[in-house]
Amino acid sequence: MTQPTGGTIPGKRVLIVSASIGAGHNSVTAALQETLAHTAPQVETTVVDILDFASWWFRLYYAGGFTLGMTRLPLLYGLGFVLTNRPQRPGRSVSERLRLAVERYALRGFRRYLETNRFDLIVNTHFAAESVISRMIQQGRLHTPQVIVVTDIEVHRLWYAQDVAHWFTPSQYSASPLRRWGIGEDRISVTGIPIRSKWIEPLDRAAVLADWKLPPSRPIVILTGGTEFVCGPVVSIARGILRACPNCCLVVLAGRNKKLLAQLSVLGRSEDRLVPLSFTDRAHEIVEVASLMVTKPGGATTAECLAKGTPMVFLKATPGHESGNAAFLAHNGAAVQTTSASDAVATVARLLANPVLLAEMAANARRLYQPARETITADICQRLALCHR
């Protein structure tokens, strides 16, 4: 359940609270944990998954409902996103108070964990724990400050909590809801979304192509529908891209989906045309050499593409945080939104035929990248230096 890291010498203790819902929150957590271990080894960092403390019915509702909504019932998920994204003002509504009461009951195991373990700072990379912590602070049962690292460009009301020392947001656009909720400018930093160091380390293109046995003479297109679960008609899109773009090499990241890998094998495997891959922790290498990435617009995934300067084509976004992420990045020229499988295929073909536009999109992506990992961990270290036990 816990994963302590850092130096063995006495020092400050940081708790990072994540949630195993999708891959983004844990990716951001790993980026912060990795950097703290490197830059401040005297700080002991512990990571917990908030769902490990939850009642079984809450885990089923939270994780199962998220997966079902994203993969099978996107319109229902979008409706829920809109209905719960209120009020857009300071304070709590009656429905919010009811929701928070249920969450506090379901997460009472986490409350006991905080009462029996001392930390100097709590960092939230998911929104489920914030209000539990806030309530304990208000009741005088906890004196540990908390900060929030928002992991999507589109900030939902679920991210709102009282008694938060500081907020780190992906963009000025992301900070706008916080201001409407009454959070002062002195408690908001626009930093981007943290990503792991491997995404910004320089790589040798020729070596990567040789290592992965990818053709140096063809544009590389990456297609992925997600890591933990797959969204969208990936197989039909792959088939369409292979037909519409005969000169490209298509790398399909199938994640942990064995069924998808089997379906892709029907299309055949060619080092020059189609390369299906199961889950890998070396995706940063392939993105390094890619001309284009066709993907779902998750917060962490898009931040990684920005770091690599990789243009993005978004599969039809689920209404809610995904559609907000997609709209922002498309508006800023780093991505193109699509509305269907055929639209995605046509967009890929159009972009590959226009290298000038692809270069402009790559430049826009690099312009949007921010070194969030370094900025946030530097702030954490500064807060720890100022806090007293």
Question: How do you describe this structure in short?
Answer:
With 389 residues, this protein is of the alpha/beta class. It has helices at residues 24-39, 56-71, 74-84, 94-106, 108-116, 130-138, 172-180, 205-211, 234-244, 258-267, 283-289, 299-308, 321-331, 341-352, 355-368, 372-386, and strands spanning 13-18, 44-49, 121-124, 146-149, 166-169, 188-190, 220-224, 249-253, 274-277, 292-295, 312-314, 335-337.
Would you mind describing this structure in some detail?
There is one protein chain. Helix content is 46%, strand content 13%. With 389 residues, it is α/β, with parallel strands linked by helices. It has two domains: 13-195 and 371-386, 3-Layer(aba) Sandwich (Rossmann fold); 201-368, 3-Layer(aba) Sandwich (Rossmann fold). The strands form two sheets. It has a six-stranded parallel beta sheet with strand order 2-1-3-4-5-6, sandwiched between helices. Strands 9-8-7-10-11-12 form a six-stranded parallel beta sheet, with helices on both faces. The longest helix has 16 residues, at 24-39.
Question: How does the SSE layout of this entry go?
Answer:
Elements: E1 13-18, H1 24-39, E2 44-49, H2 56-71, H3 74-84, H4 94-106, H5 108-116, E3 121-124, H6 130-138, E4 146-149, E5 166-169, H7 172-180, E6 188-190, H8 205-211, E7 220-224, H9 234-244, E8 249-253, H10 258-267, E9 274-277, H11 283-289, E10 292-295, H12 299-308, E11 312-314, H13 321-331, E12 335-337, H14 341-352, H15 355-368, H16 372-386
Parallel strand pairs: 1-2, 1-3, 3-4, 4-5, 5-6, 7-8, 7-10, 8-9, 10-11, 11-12
